[in-house]
Structure formats: C-alpha cells, structure tokens
Amino acid sequence: MHSEARCRKRRVTCGSGSEKVGRMQDSSHILGDMSAIRRRMERDGYLFLRGFLPRKKVLETRRTILELARIPSDAIRRVSDEYRPLEVLIHKTPSLRLLDRQDIASHPKVLELLEHPRIVKFFESFFQEGVVTTRYKWLRSVGKGEYTGVHIDRVYLGGGSRRLITMWVPMGDIPMRHGTLLVSRGSHKAVSRLIESQDEEENKESPRRFVKRRKTGEKKWRGVDGREDGNTKVSKAGEYVLGTTGKQGNRTSSGWIATEPSKVPKDFLSEPGGEWVSADFKAGDVAIVLLESVHMSTSNSSDFWRLSCDTRWQPSKDARDPLLVFQEPSRASPATRACVAAI
Fold it and tell me: How far is residue 210's CA from residue 95's CA, in Å, rounded to a whole number?
C-alpha cells in the first residue's frame, strides 16, 4: 500500500464520468539516487517530480507561446506578479490549435525549456547512455469541457524503442479541475502482460495494433486532445478502441481505450478498479510515463485554456519509430547547447 497516493482522495471530472483520485507520489527527493528512481518507475509506471524545472523559466516560456500565438490582449487576464501565469480566456479565443503550431513549439526560446539541460541530464542518467528526442513537440491547448481519453502511448508511438518515454510539462499552474495528467498506477505491468499474450505474428504485422479486435481506419499517427463530437464513431461493447478521427483537428478520440476510468476493461489495469492518481501541478512540476502506462487527463472545467506539452525521449542507440523524426537535444538551440556543455 502506498499511503501517500491513497490518502485524501477526491472526486474529479474525467471525460464522460468522474473518479475518486489519489495523489501522485512525489519522487523529487530521490532524484539523487537513480537506482531508486528506476525502481519507482518500474513499480508505478510514472514519476512525478515537483519543482523539476525553474518556475520562472516555465512562466517565461508560457508568455513567449502566447506572444507567438498572437493572443488578443483582451483575452489575457493580466497579472502583476511575474511568478504567476498569464491566463487566456476561452470565450475570447475560440480556438488556439497549438498542436498545429510547430513554428511555436520549435521556437528557440520554447525549446530552451522543452529540451532544458536538466531534462537531458535526467534521461541520460536514467538510461545510462546518450538520448534523442522527437523533433515534433505535442504542444496542447485544452478548452473548457475538453479532455484526453484513456489511452496508452504505445498505440501512437509504438513503432520503435520500447523504452521511449513521455514527459508531460504543464505550462503553468494546473489544478486537477483544469485538466491534469491522470495515471492508473502500475497499469503498465498489466498492459505488458496483455501485449505478450497476443499472437506474435499479429504484433509483427503492426506494433500499433497489439490488442485483439482493435479495428480502426485511423492513419494519423500522433495523439490529440479533445472530446467526443458528432464525428466520433463509438465502438461496440467489448471493443477497446473507441473511435476514429473526426474532422475537427484537436477534438478526436482515435486510439482511446475509454472515455472515463470506470469503462476501462479490467485486463488493462494492475488490480480490480485500478488506482488512479493525479496532482495539482505547479509551473516547474513534470510527470513522466512509460509507453504502456494507462493514462488520460481530467476535464478542464475552468474558463481558461490549459497549456501543456508532451516531449518524447529514448536512448539514441535504440530502434526509432519510422513515423517520428528524432534529434539530439543539444542541437535544438544554441542556448540549450551552451547550457548542456556547462553542466
């Protein structure tokens, strides 16, 4: 029993339902012991690191993103304190569509955070070798009532290394009611068993179609945020994939296992009912999840856009997903290169 994760549960809105959610266990105090970090990742399938990145740097990057996105001034709730995030009113900005703005995600000032030297150093220590990261950055803007459904990253990113890892970086303060990462603790073990139980030839044919009865015409390889809409085709009972891409770019549910925790098939979870955990994230906090960890986001019930970014990392010598372009993080920007060299 992990008392920290299980105490003080609270009910939060998650997609089409709600769930009693425990607290993520903070691992920042064991960052100096990488063996302990690896053991905790193997146990839980996720890591939650409080204050991992400089708060001021995160908020400066958030400001840069909003400036590059040309957000109307009347849509931004101004604050006088530089250590508080600027908030963007949803009703003043109908759509940000940041997933389509790789010009912003790849901007040197943004990459200084997303490929921060502390991130690079962490993954090099975690894997005990050099690392690469994807050129594409999943910069997300999630509106009121929106969420990401239950899924595992292997569905979207499973064509290369099994050791590819996702780091979720909140671009500001994100309490649970604004749409935080929600993880089923230990679910990676159940999913790994599920994958191993599948027919070997089926896995060889397509690493993204590892679950029996998964039938989808989806050809878009990257995951997206959203909610069900008129374009979503919902599966029949017993099928694990809930839909195919609709016409609205960031309002799709392709590859989802379910729209809420209570609808997740039991063989995806480490124990009956699963143990779902999240946190009230502050700027500077990060979460890291494995390819097979079952996760989703809580729903954004606020009047402000939730901004976050997913970055992907793996050992440089591992097989690379042919649908992804990888790069060495030190080449991303002169500022990052200089900082890495100084460590």
Answer: 34
pLDDT one-digit tens code per residue, 189-224 = 999 888 777 644 454 433 334 333 233 333 333 333
Distance of alpha carbon 310 from alpha carbon 223, whole angstroms: 10
Q: Report which of 194, 195, 189 is spatially closest to residue 270, judged by C-alpha positions.
A: 189
Six-digit token pair at 155?
């569905």
What sign does the CA torsion over 67, 70, 71, 76 have? Answer: positive
204 class by beta-carbon count within 10 Å (0-12 exposed, 13-18 middle, 19+ buried): exposed
Can you give the pTM of this predicted structure? 0.82
Q: Is the dihedral of CA 202, 182, 284, 139 positive or negative?
A: positive
Encode 277-316: b = buried (16+ Cβ within 10 Å), e = exposed: bbbebbbbbbbbbbbbbbbbbbbbebebbbbbbbbbbbbb
209: exposed, middle or buried (Cβ count in 10 Å: 0-12, 13-18, 19+): middle
> How far apart (Å, rounded) are the C-alpha atoms in residues 300 and 178?
4
Let me know: does 283 contact 62? Beta carbons within 8 Å: yes
Whether 326 contacts 133, CB under 8 Å: yes
* DSSP string computed for 274-298: --EEE--B-BTBEEEEETT--EEE-
Residue 277 corresponds to which tokens in the numbers above? 């955990």
What token pair was written down for 179? 């749409």
Q: What is the dihedral of CA 3, 271, 31, 172, to 10 degrees?
A: -90
For 76-114, what is each residue's pLDDT tens digit?
876 555 566 778 888 788 778 898 899 999 999 999 999
Q: What is the residue-wise DSSP string for 103-147? A: HHHTSHHHHHHHT-HHHHHHHHHHHTS-EEEES--EEEEE-TT-B
